[in-house]
Amino acid sequence: MLAEFSDRLSRQINRGTEVVLAALMVALVLDVWIGVVDRYFFHWQLPWPEVLARYLMIWAAMLAVSCGIARREHIGLTVLLMSLPQGGRRGLLVLIDVITFALFFYVLWFGIGFAESGAKRQAMILGATLQPFYSAIPAAALLACVQVVLVMIRDMGRQLDTVTPNEGSGA
Fold first, then answer.
1. 2-41: buried (b, 16+ CB within 10 Å) or exposed (e) per residue?
2. Where do the Tripartite ATP-independent periplasmic transporters DctQ component domain residues begin and end (predicted)?
3. Cα–Cα dist 88/96, whole Å
4. How confident is the model over 103-161, as pLDDT tens digits?
């Protein structure tokens, strides 16, 4: 019951994150396109497309981490895990989840101060503070923490129980 709730909530959060990611990627493509058109055709010398593209890409890359976690597509130790018996796999997978949570919690904790420091810095080209851009770090870390907890509850270390050694070695 709790595993089903965690799975459902993880999927909903992931779906919302993917919608935001799609919007960021559309904005990134349009921004880069404007920069190319400006540089090679109109010569307006717009100063902002390159800077905006950088921050859109950072937001997209950071948010995509939680999607990888939700789908268990992040870097794993599949070869090592598949060589262990199922009980050993479960324990190691839970340990990996706990360590992953600790890492993202650490990033969240220090990312908050990093984002706050962005309020004091000005992006001259964009005419705004850097806080919204620096906020990608703690926002993505918080989302990753939530997804790690949800998939840990959902899987309870069992996600590789049905994978045979031949299937697992290709991942």
1. eeeebbebbeebbeebeeebeebeeebeebbebbeebeee
2. 32-156
3. 12
4. 999 999 999 998 888 878 877 777 778 888 889 999 999 999 999 999 999 987 666 55
Sequence letter at residue 165: P
Q: What is the 3-state secondary structure (H, E, C) of 100-159?
A: HHHHHHHHHHHHHHHHHHHCCCEECCCCEECHHHHCHHHHHHHHHHHHHHHHHHHHCCCC
Q: CB count, 10 Å around CB of 75? A: 8
For the chain, give the mean pLDDT: 85
